[in-house]
Amino acid sequence: MPAEMKGAAKGGKQDYLDRHKVELVELPWPHQEPLNPEADIADIIVHMKDGSRYRGTVTTLQFIKETMERAARESAEGGEGSAVEGDYWFGDAIIMQRIDPAKLRTVVEDLIDSFMFE
Predict the structure, then answer these.
(1) Which of 5, 8, 25, 27 is deepest in the core (most CB within 10 A)?
(2) What DSSP state is assigned to residue 108?
(3) Distance between CA atoms of residues 24 and 45, nearest Å
(4) Nearest-CA neighbor of 92 among 46, 43, 53?
(5) Looking at the whole model, is its pTM more than 0.90?
């Protein structure tokens, strides 16, 4: 729950919902290779009806798994980084089974409805 919601009265919750009306969820992809919806990571931009914008990240479990395995393998082979890099993932991201641009708006709206959107 966002800090602004902690201890807020019902009016505060409705105000939060009113201020977070989604206009568009954009998935810009500036890379030449296509997005791999099964195993990738991408930025999203959430445009609100009041003109405000939020930036976020969307990724897949497969991308996280492959990234952790690669970091562990490179560390074991004496590459750059420490042995701990493959042991954790840190990120504030929307994690989907498959990155589906058609579902992103629904996901963001669900996060807002659940007061999990920051």
Answers:
(1) 25
(2) H
(3) 8
(4) 43
(5) no
